[in-house]
């Protein structure tokens, strides 16, 4: 447990109090904090180290960036309660207001960078989108499948620009935007932060999801699976991180012959047949509840809604009893 003296020492500095006020309910890069505070990054890093040692802040590395957020700890929760009950002086209010105004400028810089990235890649994306039904039609079909049900803990795998989180986070208790690309996560963050719903951003590989078993109630993979050379391994990971009874919604192409998507757009698989998806999902202990197709272009988009079955000893709720034979065999070594 963090020593009480360490916590009070960490709080006994106006710069560190400004950092905590900035973080609030958002995650910021350490460079962004330095930009708002108006101090050098090495100096801010020293302050951050003290806050981390006091269990008030936690850090996360994403590519070459380091992101900060309030810690999920007793010390941080106690600090929030304390600050909410103490009236700030006019001088403190002015400093915090100025910091949040500067933070708004940082968010606008993020948005500008995202717009530049979209402009640079617009022709490539538009060329692919022209091959299938409009995004709005696909999103409407996905929303119909998910309905108005609570999504609980939502994982968006291959979040890209964060569109799925933008659409469905309001039905979730918390949403995690997951992507291999740190660049795409920065774009998603620019779009989704600040947000009315809590969103976490995590970088990693969909072949080895960095989450505990049974960590999520809902997973979405929108136009993601075709990038995998081993789709069943990805499906196995999806099944593993879902709680028993959890659902996964896959949106991807039906089989096609557009070899240029493999050579020019890194598509490892040229679509998926219903029978193949059903076999993979069944082997990983998931059953398809609904499948549909959306035409309207050269490529057909398929939707598969699947539910993870209850594991032996289900009721633990934490996924410890997950017993997919295929998953156990692959990971036995």
TrEMBL record:
InterPro entries registered for this protein in UniProt: ArsR-like_HTH (IPR011991), HTH_ArsR_DNA-bd_dom (IPR001845), Methyltransf_11 (IPR013216), SAM-dependent_MTases_sf (IPR029063), WH-like_DNA-bd_sf (IPR036388), WH_DNA-bd_sf (IPR036390)
Domain HTH arsR-type: 1-90
Entry-linked SMART domains: HTH_ARSR (SM00418)
Molecular function GO labels: DNA-binding transcription factor activity; S-adenosylmethionine-dependent methyltransferase activity
CDD domains: AdoMet_MTases (cd02440), HTH_ARSR (cd00090)
Pfam families: HTH_20 (PF12840), Methyltransf_11 (PF08241)
SUPFAM superfamilies: S-adenosyl-L-methionine-dependent methyltransferases, Winged helix' DNA-binding domain
Region Disordered, annotated ranges: 313-333
Protein name, per record: Metalloregulator ArsR/SmtB family transcription factor
């Amino acid at each position: 447990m963090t020593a009480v003296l360490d916590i009070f020492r960490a709080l006994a500095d106006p710069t560190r109090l400004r950092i905590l006020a900035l973080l609030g309910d958002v995650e910021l890069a350490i460079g962004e904090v330095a930009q708002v505070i108006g101090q050098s990054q090495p100096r801010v890093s020293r302050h951050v180290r003290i806050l981390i040692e006091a269990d008030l802040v936690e850090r996360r590395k994403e590519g070459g960036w380091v992101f900060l957020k309030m810690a999920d700890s007793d010390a941080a929760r106690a600090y929030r309660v304390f600050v909410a009950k103490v009236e700030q002086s006019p001088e403190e209010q002015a400093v915090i207001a100025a910091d949040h105004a500067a933070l708004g400028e940082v968010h606008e810089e993020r948005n500008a960078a995202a717009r530049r990235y979209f402009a640079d890649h617009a022709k490539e994306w538009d060329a692919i989108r022209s091959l299938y039904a409009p995004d709005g039609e696909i999103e409407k079909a996905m929303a119909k499948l998910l309905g108005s049900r609570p999504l609980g803990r939502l994982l968006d795998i291959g979040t890209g620009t964060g569109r799925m989180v933008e659409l469905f986070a309001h039905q979730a208790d918390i949403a995690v935007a997951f992507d291999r690309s740190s660049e795409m996560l920065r774009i998603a963050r620019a779009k989704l932060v600040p947000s009315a719903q809590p969103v976490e951003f995590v970088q990693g590989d969909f072949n080895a999801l960095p989450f505990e078993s049974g960590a999520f109630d809902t997973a979405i993979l929108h136009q993601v699976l075709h990038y995998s050379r081993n789709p069943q391994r990805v499906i196995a990971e999806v099944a593993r991180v879902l709680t028993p009874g959890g659902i996964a919604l896959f949106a991807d192409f039906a089989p096609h012959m557009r070899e240029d998507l493999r050579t020019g757009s890194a598509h490892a698989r040229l679509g998926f047949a219903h029978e193949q998806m059903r076999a993979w999902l069944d082997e990983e202990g998931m059953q398809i509840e609904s499948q549909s197709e959306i035409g309207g272009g050269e490529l057909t988009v398929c939707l598969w809604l699947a539910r993870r079955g209850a594991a032996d000893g289900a009721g633990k709720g934490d996924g410890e009893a997950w017993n997919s034979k295929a998953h156990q065999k692959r990971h036995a070594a």
